[in-house]
Fold this protein.
Amino acid sequence: MSSLPFPRVLLGPGPSSVSGRVLEVVGRPPIGYLDPELLTIMPEIMAKLRTVFGTANEFTLPLTGTGMAGMECCLTNLLEPSDNVVIGVNGFFGGRMVEIARRCGANVTQVDFEWGTPVLPGPMREAASAILGKVKLIGCVHAETSTGTASPLAPIGALARELGALFVVDAVTSLGGMAVELDKNQVDACYSATQKCMGCLPGMAPVSFSDRAIEAIKARKSAPQSWYLDINLLKNYWSGDHMYHHTISTNMALAFRESLLEIDEEGLEARFERHRTASDVLINGLVEMGIEPFAQAGFRLPMLNSVKVPDGIADMEVRGRLLREYGIEIGGGLGAAKGKIWRIGLMGDSARLRNVELLLAALKRVLHA
């Protein structure tokens, strides 16, 4: 394996490539978790993160951990045993939301959608109407990484408000690559990750909780089952008196601040357009090669492009050759899509036309060798 080309060109479902300036910051000598330099930039990190999330939520910060820590944080803080929950599942990660909600002791109604299609409000409303008692929470994945499919948030957010329920959203793949707009879409809790469109390394999970969500947590009958992810404790470290909670990775916090500065300098709209442009060029080039998109038209993600593996082509052989011969990583399918699709990530610093052109040229050579 030591003969693999290095550095890799990361065009899979994550992590994505990062800029030299982010790498430079993460490699500096560490500082303490109560160092004055870190305490000074904490409010800046939170403020810039609010901008990317599209929210005024006071509780908006990056957890120590990956995107799955963010998912656990949102669900374990909001759910108690016997709460009624409706979760739309149109891929692998919607299924994870269901699993964690069940481990919280909630009564989960899973609403299934065909993989490659979006979560829509009609079936969600029908499922909620069949539940006896109040629905505490409605959840879905904004950008389903396993299928490359986007689900519209506004109509589901409106449904949640109509039912008096909290709306929880997985934005692991979408944040920083397309508009999330928590406040506009009436999202009450959202989680993401640093290693995809946010342009940083794996290791932190941005989360945001609305005032409605905070009130629901305050009204709990018992403390959240996770001490490590208890937002009341985390808030005391990130603001106020900075009371010690755990030893965060200070280098990751500094690197994440650098990636937020990059986003600020580029501008969100320009960043979104860069992701869309790279995706359009990629899909057009693949279609010319006879490779078809997988996700439903009109709901395809620009940062995670899912395409069907052509008939007669060995999925793992092609991906293996791309990695061995060109150092290019692309992803295979998960769950029901395993062996059937390729997942090509154009996220953060990886969303560059030079990467698209390199992949198209390499894939053409591998397929016609």
Q: What stands out?
A: The chain is about 40% helix and 15% strand. The longest strand covers residues 135-141.
